[in-house]
Amino acid sequence: SSLRCNLSTKGSGAMSGSMPKDKGSVMFAVLGYATCSSLMLVVNKVCVHVLPAPSFVLLMQVSSAWISVKACGLMGLIEVDELEVPKLKSFFWVSVAFLACIFANIKTLQYCNVETFIVFRASTPVVIGVADWLFLGRELPNTRSSLSMLALVVGAGSYMYTDASYVVHGYRWVAIWFCTFCFDQLYIKHVVDSVAVRSNWGRVFYTNLWSSILLLFMTLTLEPHVLTKTLWTQEKIAALLLSCALGTAMSYFAFLCRAAVSATSFTVVGNVCKITTVLINIVIWDKHASVMGIGFLLACLVAAGAYQAAPLRTVEVSSTHLMSDKDNGDTEEGEAPSSPPAVK
What we know:
The chain is mainly α and about 350 residues long. It is built from 13 helices and 2 strands; from the N terminus they run E-H-H-H-H-H-H-H-H-H-H-H-H-E-H. The protein is globular and about 50 Å long. It is found in: Membrane. It is a multi-pass membrane protein.
């Protein structure tokens, strides 16, 4: 006879207290992230419009995030991890991946319009779905999910074709962004699953602390002339404060959502946020989409709703083999073998 068990990462037991388990908690994490992400794009657009210093805006967002989180932790309002060298090492690369993805995003948008960028982003779940299987122990997407991802790409491409021109120059930056984005989604999911933290706020603290240090040098290098000439008004301060508050919430829900769902599912949710933002822009800004264009965007939302997350792979373990290992003293009671059997 054989036993079947989930193939999980080495840190599956980490931070069980803040890892969403039931459907209600998962839905809370997904809706929280989707709401913050969709609004964040609009708020950032307004903030950078009144304060044309994007590096400084991002620096204020990440700095206010870790400072406010640590302050609340010191007051006993939330549980926040202390500074530990192993965690600092792990989350340093999370911050590097995060900032590299943002930089590549900005460079990509210099050479292609937003609608074209969304089409490239809509295709990323196809690659990440396979990488989830290769590196993170997930099954390959089933037929329904594969068709859902394909429909998402087709819908986004159809909207671009009907309501916007296809504008792409500098394919090198598009390719760099694509690879960086896929690495960002996979590596951060790996760290979330494998690095034990006391609460989700610990992830927010570590990531934003490192990001603020890295962004400080970038801001001092790129934007000192803008900041010295800036005339601060109530409008600029209000926009900056709103973006900082939303940025902290966004960071919290992003990590909570990454812990709750697979890397591919997280990417699909992110794509839905981008499409939702386009719909918001159509309503708010002076941009009139055709009925067909709006129909394609709504079709993208329906396609994303049909996506089903791939479960963790299972392994077959011979019960006779397990008993033999136990009798020989190779493993302690309740402890898994040091090297898992081959996946079947």
